Amino acid sequence: MTASAAFIYSDQLSRHVLRADHPMKPVRLRHTYELLEALHAFSPPASLLLAPRQAEERELLTFHTHEYVAAVRSLGQGIALPNAGRYGFGQPGDNPVYAGMYEAALLSTGASLTAADLLLEGKAPVVFSPSGGLHHAMPGAASGFCIFNDPVIAINSLLARGMKVAYVDIDAHHGDGVQHAFYDTGAVLTISLHESGRFLFPGTGFVEELGAGKGEGYSVNAPLAPYTGDETYLWVFHEVVPPLLEAFKPDALVTQLGIDTYFRDPITHLALTSRGYEQAVALLAQAARSRSIPWLALGGGGYDLSAVARCWTLAYGVMAGQTWPDEAPPAMQELLGKHTLRDTEEAPIPQGMVEATRAFAQETVAEVQRRIFPHHGTG
Predict the structure, then answer these.
(1) Domain for residue 313, yes or no?
(2) Suppose 115 and one of 129, 162, 200, 304 were both cysteines; which one would form an S-S bond, judging by CB atoms 3.0 to 4.6 Å apart?
(3) Which domain holds residue 162?
(4) pTM
(5) Domain containing 55 — which CATH number?
(6) Residues assigned a catalytic role
(7) What are phi and psi of 5, to 5 degrees?
């Protein structure tokens, strides 16, 4: 019997610490798992809970260079390299070296590949690998808390089966590493909704970055202004994503579901609530189900630990076709700092910003429709 959804997790994914003061805290994965477990989310046979495998080096090399993989292995073993900065690593920066980082990166990448394997085997129509979604890593360098680019590597495994892949990224940060990987091919449509690079790392993701050669028109960016809230965000999503997916007709959907779009996230400036986020995930679910295509869902950013656990729990409920109660399980309420899974308050958007963010969004959508839609016969 095919499960309605599958979730990839083992406690080993959540044990490493990048640095004591680092905003990326893998323990958020354990909090998400514990919340879902408290909601009895993994009751078989409707839902599968599976442990990840490690990625193999040959899989890493479908995107990363031999030199870089060797450098990550050496650094993770405590071997000092005089040119570690060349590979994006530095102790005070975004990408510190820590003990066991090579193995940790192999496992999170392998988790996304485990998810892809399940989809290809037909064991579930949607699989969620929350440890994945590390979309900034480049072929020869770590970037933005990301060592290996598991979205690219997982997509490559689908491409090897002859599939056309649509990748939709709703993280607050532009999915620059994934865009880079597929910038000159029409086999992958990348769509990224994110806070504009004018205001946020990595400083890319403008509409005019639309692909090159055979890939022209297949890199789609929808930059948004700080304080963009639920209503405007979802309007942009409706205007951009469904028409392009309909025109592209993918064989598989891969999504990056970062929740650093949340209004209380400490390092970003968008203003989504859990309600807006859940609606965005529901739209992605609708896109996959209406086309009867497999859906590989990955995690991503998210630095408010309560929001990560609650919103990824809500996301998995959408995937599995389960509706969770608003009341959080009593045993989890202290950890979450809330009694409810969904937000009861509105995002505190400064006066006048709703109109300003809407105007910014309207300009973005108009530019996407002008520059991108003609490549797909959409208008």
Answers:
(1) yes
(2) 129
(3) 5-64+102-376
(4) 0.98
(5) 3.40.800.20
(6) 136
(7) -165, 160
